[in-house]
Amino acid sequence: MKAAVVSRFDEPPSYHDVPVPVPQKSSEMVVDVVATALHPRVRSQADGSHYTSTGVLPLVPGIDAVVRDFRGVLYYALLDDTAMGTMAQRTVVAKDRVVALPNTADPVAVAAALNPAMSSWVALRHRINFERGSRVLILGATGSAGRMAIQVAKRFGADQVIAVGRSPQRLSALTALGADRVLTFDQLDTAGDVDVVIDYVWGPPTAKGMVDLLSHRRDRGKDVIWIEIGSMAGPGAEILSAALRSTRLQIVGSGIGSVSGDTFREEIPSIAEAVTAGAFDVRTRTAPLSDVTAVWTQSLGEDERVVFLP
Ligand SMILES: NC(=O)c1ccc[n+]([C@@H]2O[C@H](COP(=O)([O-])OP(=O)(O)OC[C@H]3O[C@@H](n4cnc5c(N)ncnc54)[C@H](OP(=O)(O)O)[C@@H]3O)[C@@H](O)[C@H]2O)c1
């Protein structure tokens, strides 16, 4: 069968013949991959930079997919860390770690939307005690996960959502998704008192933005919870001690480890149902897996989420 194969961390995957995977346990099954998306998390798996990387090569990238079993039943599969990922014609999944999808599910939309939607959905439901009526600020709101976070926060009852990004042009499209205000990073001092920050950016923009946001807080006795979810601008951010002393700032993270695999999987049916019902605006572009090497590089920075059809 064919698969995308990473042989070196400094090169994009190439399209190769690989052996059909064989289940190692009775609790596993081989499935056909129907649609699998190129999330930033997959890029960091394939370049070895993700914090879960074991350094093992070669590997087939891909952390999730819509798959089909031998009876024709569709599932969403979220894989544990493995060198046999989803960017292949077939892969191996644990039977208790797949979630059956309704017949009406659109495989491309589900493959594209689950990972970015899940990030804020799980964070707001499991990492904090999110209250209806909260004011939410999203850093990196122009990306796939940020765009979903606007819609998820509104769905969960946010009173106001402030979308923050670096491109005024990209930000201008976000009010249609439910953002009440859009700001560039250098306008964070005007954001006012927010209750929750959802951060996909980290790095220097967060370090500066945190100071700008917190030092202009009117009510410093009110809690503000900063949820770290992504690190598009860098893995580290300098946090000033004064930020933690002078406001009621709490910083938490949300991702694999701080949220259990079981918790992620428990939420999948509800998110898949919302995606299938058309609750989210999902931008996708499909490509054959045979084009993986070219598409990997060309699609960097694109608005649409690439979904490979093996
Ligand atoms: N922990 C979890 O559960 C989880 C789940 C899903 C995703 N994530 C993480 O969340 C992050 C975003 O994912 P995504 O799917 O939204 O990616 P994406 O679609 O590629 O969007 C990336 C976002 O980051 C912004 N950005 C990139 N580099 C930046 C920089 N140097 N300074 C400021 N902003 C920058 C982009 O702004 P422009 O629009 O201006 O380019 C865009 O808003 C990734 O780190 C991903 O791994 C985590």
UniProtKB/TrEMBL annotation:
Residues 146-269 form the Alcohol dehydrogenase-like C-terminal domain. Gene3D superfamilies: Medium-chain alcohol dehydrogenases, catalytic domain, NAD(P)-binding Rossmann-like Domain. It comes from the Bacteria. GO terms for molecular function: oxidoreductase activity. Pfam families: ADH_zinc_N. InterPro entries: ADH-like_C, GroES-like_sf, NAD(P)-bd_dom_sf, Zn-ADH-like_protein. SUPFAM superfamilies: GroES-like, NAD(P)-binding Rossmann-fold domains. This is NADPH:quinone reductase or related Zn-dependent oxidoreductase. It comes from Mycobacterium terramassiliense.
